[in-house]
Write a sequence for this structure.
């Protein structure tokens, strides 16, 4: 359905709330109904030099909706504060922080690298995802542990530049797309999950790792400390040596691994989609009363 037909459908039907999935400004032409939007992150604004070249309309479109919305859902306090930093005159009272839940179910699935120890990386690898520093950080670890592997779940096949960056360890970096059952198995069988991203609005892989009893080693930036709290070993994402040290600390210390697993299990209990749904309904009621 195109935008014109969508607008016609909206204006020909009676509703209380409209909650779009993205930042299309045609919604501002609606005749009735309160507007609620969800902001997952401020990556476009924080990394404008990267995004403005290929997506010039998202930032201004998003800004218009932010100011027009009757209520805004931020998926973390970090995202809320980023919004208010970038747009300091935005009404903070209409922003509600509602955390994500986790959909991935724990299982005793098979390892993607049977019989081998590996460090797990999940998701996209470009830009702020910080994969290049991650490769530099794990290189000396691979040189010390000759049988250790790195497994990258999702994110597409390695690029030629990524393969070149692996140097003599090309055969020890593995990549595959995984369904949910296989992804749970990848978490369950990893020595640790490393999340080196410079910025995330929330970071669902943290919850997936907690749910699947995998020790987390992650950045100390943006929303990570808020979401993970004491259930992760933290590093400075811009400091390769610090990243190396913290990964080594976890893979060398079985007691620390078990402690992180236990804390992750407890932390995961704080997040659920049922809770998110209840809080979203409360947000709708708030928007109706504005």
């Amino acid at each position: 359905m195109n935008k014109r037909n969508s607008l016609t459908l909206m204006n020909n039907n009676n509703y209380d709330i409209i909650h779009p999935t993205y930042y299309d400004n045609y919604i501002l032409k609606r005749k009735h109904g309160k507007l609620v939007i969800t902001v997952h992150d401020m990556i476009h604004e924080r990394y404008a030099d990267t995004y403005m070249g290929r997506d010039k309309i998202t930032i201004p479109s998003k800004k218009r909706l932010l100011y027009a919305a009757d209520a805004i859902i931020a998926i973390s306090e970090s995202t809320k504060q980023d919004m208010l930093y970038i747009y300091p005159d935005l009404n903070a009272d209409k922003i509600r922080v509602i955390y994500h839940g986790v959909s991935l179910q724990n299982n005793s699935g098979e390892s993607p690298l049977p019989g081998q120890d590996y460090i797990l990386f999940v998701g996209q690898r470009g830009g702020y995802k910080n994969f290049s520093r991650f490769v530099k950080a794990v290189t000396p670890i691979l040189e010390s542990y000759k049988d250790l592997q790195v497994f990258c779940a999702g994110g597409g096949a390695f690029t030629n530049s990524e393969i070149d960056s692996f140097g003599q360890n090309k055969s020890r970096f593995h990549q595959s797309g995984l369904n949910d059952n296989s992804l749970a198995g990848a978490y369950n069988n990893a020595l640790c999950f490393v999340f080196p991203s410079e910025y995330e609005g929330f970071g669902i892989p943290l919850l997936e790792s907690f749910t699947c009893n995998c020790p987390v080693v992650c950045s100390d930036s943006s929303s990570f400390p808020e979401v993970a709290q004491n259930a992760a070993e933290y590093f400075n994402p811009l400091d390769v040596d610090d990243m190396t040290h913290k990964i080594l600390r976890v893979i060398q210390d079985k007691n620390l691994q078990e402690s992180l697993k236990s804390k992750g299990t407890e932390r995961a209990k704080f997040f659920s989609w049922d809770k998110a749904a209840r809080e979203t309904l409360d947000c709708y009621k708030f928007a109706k009363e504005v």
About this structure: The longest strand covers residues 34-39. The chain has 13 helices and ten strands. Residues 273-289 form the longest helix (17 residues). The CA atoms of residues 131 and 174 lie 14 Å apart.
